[in-house]
Predict the 3D structure of the following.
Amino acid sequence: VQPGESGGDPVQAGGSLRPFCSAPRYTVSTHCMAWFRQAPGNGREGVVRINMAGGTTYADSVKGRFTISRDDANDTLYLQMSKLKPEDTAMYYCARGQWGYCSETFPHWGQGTQVTVSS
């Protein structure tokens, strides 16, 4: 799983970003894909996951503000982040899990994309 460029420049609270990551061919549409984040001093937190059927599970903290999507033809996973808050500041990681439906196992991780939200 390779992280895509999302700018890296700080964004003001209320703004939007759309990080993305690229995956090996035919994996985005057939595997559980997810976004996690980790803020300094905190553990890694699950943000959202999507299974092969397109079913999604969001963390309560991002519901209504973040949207996961995928481009199956190009094996790309996106995270549309809107109404950003300073507490969303973290390193964001995309991850690939098992074939089909999601479990707690994610063997493949991207390198991470820094998201910084200023107040």
Observations:
- The chain has a mean pLDDT of 91.
